[in-house]
Amino acid sequence: MKKEIFKAVQISEHVYWVGAIDWSIRDFHGYLTSRGTTYNAYLILADKITLVDTVKAPFKDELLARIASVIDPKEISVIISNHSEMDHSGCLYDIIDYTEPERIIASKMGVKTLTNHFHSERGITAADDGGTISLGNMDIAFMETRMLHWPDSMFSYLPEDRILFSQDAFGMHLATYERFADEIDDTVLEYEAAKYYANILLPYSNLIPKAFEKVKKAQIKPLIAAPDHGPIWRKEADIGKILGLYEKWAEQKSQPKAVVIYDTMWKSTELMARAICEGLEKENVVVKLLPLRAVHRSDVAMEILDAGALIVGSPTINNNIFPTLADVMNYLKGLKPKNLIGAAFGSYGWSGEAVKQLEAMLTEMKINIAGEGIRAEYVPYDETLIKCFDLGKQVGEKIKETNIN
Ligand code: FEO
Question: Which residue among 99, 308, 314, 338 is buried most deeply as judged by most CB within 10 Å?
C-alpha cells in the first residue's frame, strides 16, 4: 500500500492517527457491526517515536502506509500495547520484527496474554501501573484498567498533549472518514457507543466508577480521549458527554421500558407477544418488540441496556425452547444485565416445557419474575390473549413502580 494514498491524520501537536478502516466487517465475534469499524493506532512524534497499539492482521499494510506518510516506520523506537485482543495486536509481532524498536511495553497481564497468543515474548516488558517512561522530550504514563474489558487492558496518557489512549473504552464500531466525534451525528454516536458498551463492557460495569476514580486520583485531565475503535473525542463537551453516558450505563438504572423477545413457529407465540405489548403500551412504558428471526442478539443487548423488563417467549420444540432463544438467552446471561424484572410465555403442542425453561433462565440471571408465565396449547384462545394483555399491564405497572422508587 502507498503512503501517498493512505495518510495519517494529525490529532494533536505530537500525535497522529495511523489506524485502519474496516468498512466491510459485520460480525465482530458474534456482535453485528452494521456500520463496520476502525482499528485505531497512534503515532507519537517524540524524541523516541512511539506507536500506541497496532491493527487487525489483514490491515497491517494500511497501518504501515499511514505511518510511512509521516516517518519511516523503522524510526519507531517504542511500541505500546494497551490491549492484547487481536483486533489491536494481530500484526504486532510483524510490526516488531519490521521496525525493531528499542522497547515494547504492555501491562503485566499484557505480557502474559501476548505471549500466550503469539508463543514468544519478543522482549516485551511490563509497564508499572501508575508509572511513566521517558520518550526523550516527553513522558508517557500507564494505568492498568484490568477487566475493562480484558485482564491486560491498560490506558496510556501523554501529558504533553493531554491525550488519553483508552483502548476499547469510549470506543464504538463505526467506520467513517471522519476521525473526530464532533464531525459525526450525535444520534449515531450515542447509538453505536451504547451498543458497544452493552455488548463489550456491560458485564464489567462495577469496574467503571473505580477506573474513573483512578484517573481522577492520578490527576489526569485529558483534552482528548483516543479510543481503539471509532471516533476520537477532542471537545470538552464531547468528552463530558461520553463520560456521563458511561457513568449512566454503569449504574444500569432502568427506564420505564420493556423489551419483549420471541420466536414463533406458526404465529401463536407471536400473537401472544403482540397481546403482551398492547398491555405494556396501555401502561405508557416504552415497548420494544424484537422478533429473534429478524433481530440480532447484539441489538437485543443494546435495547436491554436501559430497560426495566425482559419478557421472553418461545414455542416448545422437541421438549425445548426454540434455538434462537437459546442463543440470545445464553448471550444475555454472559452480559449480566441488572435491575430487570421478567416474564415468560409461549405456545406448545403436547408437552410445553419452554415457558418453565425460560423462567429458570431468567431466575438464573437474577431477573425477578414479575408475573406467572403463560402457555397456550396450539393456538391461543381469546381468554389466553387477554391473560397476555393483563401480563403486559402487570409488568408495565411494576416497571413504573420501580422507576418511581
Ligand atoms: Fe477492540 Fe477488546 O478489542
Answer: 314
Q: Do residues 284 and 147 both lie within one domain? A: no
pLDDT, tens digit, 9 for 90 and up, residues 262-312: 999 999 999 999 999 999 999 999 999 999 999 999 999 999 999 999 999
Q: Cα–Cα distance between 85 and 107 in angstroms, integer?
A: 13
Name 141's Cβ contacts closer than 8 Å, sequence gap at least 6.
130, 131, 132, 156, 157, 158, 159, 218, 220
Cell of residue 207, nine digits: 469496574
16 in active site: no
Give the range of the structural domain holding residue 129, as residue numbers without chain letter: 9-251
Domain boundary among 230, 251, 272: 251
Judgement on whether residues 392 and 269 belong to the same structural domain of the protein:
yes
Among candidate residues 22, 87, 263, 359, the one labeled active-site is 87
CATH number at residue 388: 3.40.50.360
Q: 148 and 208 in contact (C-beta within 8 Å)? A: yes
* Cα-only R_g, the chain: 24
Q: Out of 29, 102, 178, 236, pick the active-site residue.
A: 29
- Look at residue 405 and tell me if it is in a domain: no
The phi and psi torsions of 381 (rounded to 5 degrees) equal -75, 170
Is 14 annotated as catalytic? Answer: no
Closest ligand 1 atom to residue 168 Cα is 1
According to DSSP H, which parts of 79-203 are helical? 86-89, 92-99, 108-118, 186-196
Q: Alpha helices, DSSP H only, in 120-231?
A: 186-196, 208-217
pLDDT tens digits for range 152-191: 999 999 999 999 999 999 999 999 999 999 999 999 999 9
